[in-house]
Write a structure and sequence with these properties.
The complex is a heterodimer of chains A (about 450) and B (about 270).
Chain A lengths: L1 H19 L18 E7 L4 H17 L3 E7 L5 H10 L6 E5 H9 L12 H6 L2 H5 L2 E3 L5 E3 L2 E5 L2 E6 H7 L12 H11 L5 E3 L6 H9 L7 E4 L2 E4 L3 H15 L17 H5 L3 E7 L2 H8 L6 E4 L9 E3 L1 E6 L6 H11 L2 H11 L2 E2 L2 H4 L11 H6 L4 E3 L8 H17 L5 H20 L1
Chain B lengths: L1 H27 L3 H4 L14 H9 L2 H32 L3 H13 L4 H14 L6 H26 L2 H9 L4 H30 L2 H6 L8 H5 L11 H22 L15
The chains are: A alpha/beta (about 450), B mainly alpha (about 270).
Subcellular location (chain B): Cell membrane
Membrane topology (chain B): Multi-pass membrane protein
Organism (chain B): Microbispora catharanthi
Chain lengths: ~450, ~270
C-alpha cells in the first residue's frame, strides 16, 4: 500500500510539474523595456459578444504589429466576477496594466489608490473627442481631498424602446423620431391601444429595477439624491415619483403592461415579444443584438427613441479603460489606450457590443448611423446622456441592494403604496448613507 | 407490484438526474430563434452544430480542457495518496492527539475562501507558483484534503480491526496485513474519494480565477464564464455547447472507475 501511495504521489507531482510550468510569468512582471526588450502590457478585456471579441482581438493585433516595442497581451475576463478578480490582484500588487470595467466600479478602486489618476495625461486628441458629460462618469474623489480622472470612458448605454413593427402599424399610431419622440403620456396612450386580449402593450422587466428607474427619472428631473455641504441624502419628491407612478399605472390602472413580466431579467421578455404577446419592450440599446439574432424570420421590429418627460435626459454610466496604479509601464499603457479608443476603433467596438461610442468621431461612422437594426435611432440617443446622479454617491451599492431593490419590487408588485416606497427609500436609505459619510 | 413501483421510482429518479443534462444537450443544438421561442421544444426542430463551432472558434476549449484534466487528475491522485495514510492513522490510533487533529481538520473547513485568497496568492507568488498549473494543483489539494480525509477515515473505520488481527494471527506482518487485507476492502472508499477530489478540482473556479493570469494556463471553468455578459445576459447556445463538452471528461472518468464503487465487500467478514 505504501509503495502504491508513493508511486501515485511521484507520478502526480511529475505530471503537475511537467505541465504546470508552461505559463511563465504574467505580463505584469514583464521586463522594464530596457536592453531593447519589448515592454509587455497585460490588457484585461470584458468583451463577450462574438463581434466584440473579434474587434478587440483585431485592434490588439494591429497595435502589436505596429508597435514591436510595446506588446499587449489580450486577456479575457468576465463581467460576472471581474471585480472579485481585480480586488485580489490589486491587493496582491499584481494587477493587469490596462483594465476594462465600468464607471460604477471605478469609484471605490480610485479612493483606495488602485488606479492611476489620468488627469493631464490623456492625449489632447482623445480628450477632445469625448464629451465632458462622459468624462464626468469617470471623475471621482481620490480618497483624500482631490478629484481625479480614473479611466477613459468609451461605451455607453441608453434606454430605448424596441417595438413590434406590425403591431405598431396595425394600431395606426405615430412612429416617433429622435427629433420628435413620444412623451410619457403618448407612450401610455399607445400602450393602451396596443393592449388586446392576451397581448400587452408593454413588458417592463423589473428584476433589477433600480438603475432603470433612476436613469429614466431624469426625464422629469428626478435625481433621488441630494448633496449639501458634502452630505448626501435620499430624496423622493414629485420629480422622482413621476416615472415610478407612470409605470405603476401602466401595470394596474391602464393594465397595458404585463405584471407577470416584472420578475424578468432584461432579455427574458423576448420570447413573448417575438410571439406578439408584448408590443413594446423598454431596454438598453444593446438588447438589439439579441433581438436581431433571435427574431424569427419575417419578424419586423423597430428601435424607438427614448421617451420624453420634461426632457429626454437619461442617466448614464460608461464602460471604461483604466491604468493600474501598480503598472510598471503607465505611459505605454496610456499610449495603447489612446490608440485602442481612437474614433475608428471605438466605432468597431461600439458596433461589436451594440452600444454607443463616447467618441464624437465614431458616432459619425456610417456603420453607426445606418437605419439597419435601429443604429440611427440608438446613436442619436447618445446626445441625451448625462452622468447618472447615483454614480458619485458613496454607499449607493448598499442602498440599491438592501433598500431600493426590494422596496421597488414590492411597489411594482402592488404590495406597498408610492408613499410607503418613498418613506422606505428615504428613511432606510439615509441610515445606509449615513454610515458611508462618517 | 412493489417491484414495478420500485422501477417506477428509479425511473423517476433517473429522469430527475438526467433532465439538466438532456436540456443542456437540447439547448446546445438549437438555433438562437428556437431558443427564444415562447413554447420551448425538447427536440430541436432544426438541429445545428453552429453553437459548438462558435464555442470552439472563440475559446481554446481543448487546451483549457486538457489543462483542467491535468490539474484534476493530479489533485485527485495526490489528495488520495496523502489522505489515505493519514486517514488510516486517525482511524486506528485513537488518542487525544487524533481527536485534536480531526477537530482541527473540521475547523479548517469553516474559513471562507475570500478570507484567505489574498494571503494565499502572496505565498504562491513568493514561491513563483502564480500562473502555473502546479500552483493551482497544490491549492486544490489543500482544499480538497480535509473532506477527503474525513471521507477516507470513515471508510477505514468501517474495516473491522479483527480482520487485521486475523491476518496477524495467520503470520502476516503489519504491512502485509495492510496490503493484502485492508487495501482491497478500502478500494471503494478510495474510488469515491478520487471521484470527489477530481470533480471538486474540475469544477473549481475562484482559485483558478485569481491564480491563473494568462490565457495559456487557463482552466475550463474560466473559459466557460466568458459566454456570460453583464446583467446575467448570456450567449446560451455556445455556453450550453461548451458546458456539455465540459461534462464529458467527468462522465468518462466516472465510467472508468465506477466498477470499483461497490458496497457489500465486508458483508459477513466478522461474525455477529
Amino acid at each position: 500500500m505504501k509503495r502504491l501511495s508513493a508511486a501515485l504521489a511521484v507520478a502526480a507531482v511529475a505530471l503537475a510539474a511537467g505541465c504546470g510550468s508552461g505559463g511563465g510569468d504574467g505580463g505584469g512582471d514583464a521586463a522594464p523595456g530596457q536592453n531593447g526588450e519589448p515592454v509587455k502590457l497585460r490588457f484585461l478585456s470584458l468583451a463577450w459578444q462574438k463581434e466584440s471579441i473579434e474587434a478587440n482581438k483585431q485592434i490588439v493585433a494591429d497595435w502589436n504589429t505596429a508597435n514591436p516595442k510595446i506588446q499587449v497581451e489580450y486577456v479575457q475576463g468576465s463581467w460576472d466576477n471581474v471585480n472579485d478578480q481585480l480586488v485580489t490582484s490589486f491587493e496582491a500588487g499584481d494587477p493587469p496594466d490596462v483594465i476594462h470595467d465600468d464607471s460604477p466600479a471605478l469609484s471605490s478602486f480610485a479612493s483606495r489608490g488602485f488606479l492611476l489618476d489620468l488627469t493631464g495625461k490623456v492625449p489632447a486628441e482623445l480628450k477632445s473627442d469625448i464629451p465632458q458629460a462622459a468624462w464626468d462618469t469617470v471623475t471621482f474623489s481620490d480618497g483624500k481631498s482631490g478629484q481625479g480622472v480614473y479611466g477613459v470612458p468609451f461605451l455607453q448605454e441608453s434606454q430605448v424602446l424596441i417595438a413590434n413593427k406590425k403591431l405598431l402599424d396595425g394600431a395606426g399610431v405615430r412612429v416617433p423620431t429622435p427629433e420628435s419622440p413620444w412623451t410619457w403620456d403618448e407612450f401610455a396612450d399607445v400602450a393602451k391601444k396596443l393592449t388586446k386580449k392576451g397581448a400587452y402593450g408593454v413588458a417592463w422587466p423589473m428584476k433589477s429595477p433600480v438603475n432603470k428607474v433612476l436613469n429614466l427619472a431624469l426625464n422629469f428631473g428626478g435625481t433621488f439624491f441630494d448633496t449639501q455641504n458634502g452630505k448626501t441624502t435620499v430624496k423622493v419628491g414629485p420629480q422622482e415619483r413621476e416615472v415610478l407612478q407612470r409605470i405603476h399605472d401602466q401595470l394596474y390602472t391602464d393594465k397595458s403592461a404585463d405584471p407577470s413580466a416584472l420578475g424578468m431579467g432584461t432579455a427574458d421578455p423576448l420570447p413573448g415579444f417575438f410571439a406578439g404577446k408584448y408590443a413594446i419592450v423598454p431596454a438598453g440599446v444593446y438588447l438589439r443584438q439579441q433581438v436581431a439574432e433571435q427574431a424569427p424570420s419575417g419578424f419586423e421590429w423597430v428601435t424607438l427613441p427614448p421617451l420624453k418627460g420634461q426632457t429626454s435626459q437619461q442617466g448614464a454610466v460608461s464602460q471604461t479603460l483604466s491604468v493600474a496604479a501598480d503598472s510598471k509601464h503607465p505611459d505605454e499603457a496610456l499610449k495603447f489606450i489612446a490608440y485602442f479608443l481612437n474614433g475608428p476603433n471605438q466605432a468597431k467596438l461600439a458596433k461589436g457590443d451594440w452600444l454607443l461610442p463616447t467618441s464624437t468621431t465614431a458616432a459619425k461612422d456610417p456603420a453607426l448611423t445606418t437605419k439597419e437594426n435601429g443604429w440611427d435611432v440608438a446613436t442619436a440617443s447618445a446626445k441625451d446622456l448625462v452622468v447618472a446622479p447615483f454614480l458619485k454617491v458613496n454607499g449607493f451599492d448598499e442602498w440599491k441592494s438592501k433598500v431600493a431593490t426590494p422596496a421597488m419590487q414590492e411597489y411594482f408588485a402592488d404590495k406597498i403604496s408610492l408613499d410607503e416606497l418613498a418613506n422606505r427609500l428615504v428613511e432606510e436609505g439615509n441610515k445606509v448613507l449615513e454610515r458611508y459619510s462618517r | 407490484m412493489t417491484r414495478a413501483l420500485k422501477y417506477l421510482a428509479l425511473l423517476g429518479y433517473v429522469v430527475f438526474l438526467a433532465f439538466p443534462l438532456l436540456w443542456l444537450l437540447s439547448t446546445a443544438l438549437k438555433t438562437p430563434q428556437e431558443m427564444a421561442a415562447l413554447d420551448p421544444t425538447w427536440i430541436p426542430r432544426r438541429p445545428t452544430l453552429a453553437n459548438f463551432a462558435d464555442a470552439f472558434a472563440e475559446q481554446d476549449l481543448i487546451g483549457a480542457g486538457l489543462r483542467s484534466l491535468v490539474v484534476a487528475v493530479a489533485t485527485a491522485l495526490i489528495t488520495v495518496a496523502l489522505a489515505l495514510p493519514a486517514a488510516y492513522a486517525l482511524a486506528r490510533f485513537r488518542g487525544v492527539a487524533g481527536k485534536i487533529a480531526i477537530g482541527w481538520v473540521l475547523v479548517s473547513q469553516v474559513f471562507p475562501v475570500v478570507l484567505i485568497i489574498i494571503p494565499l496568492f502572496m505565498v504562491l507568488r513568493r514561491l513563483e507558483l502564480v500562473n502555473t498549473l502546479a500552483g493551482l494543483t497544490i491549492v486544490h489539494v489543500t482544499f480538497v484534503m480535509p473532506f477527503a480525509l474525513w471521507m477516507l477515515r470513515g471508510y477505514v473505520r468501517a474495516v473491522p480491526r479483527e480482520l487485521e488481527e486475523a491476518a496477524a494471527v495467520d503470520g502476516a506482518g503489519r504491512l502485509r496485513a495492510l496490503a493484502a487485507v485492508v487495501a482491497p476492502l478500502l478500494a471503494p472508499g478510495v474510488v469515491a474519494t478520487l471521484l470527489f477530489s477530481f470533480i471538486s478540482s474540475w469544477n473549481e473556479f475562484m482559485f483558478a480565477l485569481v491564480i491563473l493570469k494568462d490565457p495559456e494556463v487557463e482552466t475550463l471553468p474560466l473559459t466557460l464564464v466568458r459566454f456570460v455578459g453583464p446583467e446575467g445576459v448570456a450567449r446560451l447556445g455556445p455556453l450550453a455547447a461548451a458546458s456539455l463538452l465540459a461534462t464529458v471528461p467527468s462522465l468518462v472518468f466516472f465510467a472508468i472507475i465506477q466498477r470499483r464503487l461497490r458496497s457489500g465487500l465486508m458483508a459477513g467478514a466478522v461474525k455477529g
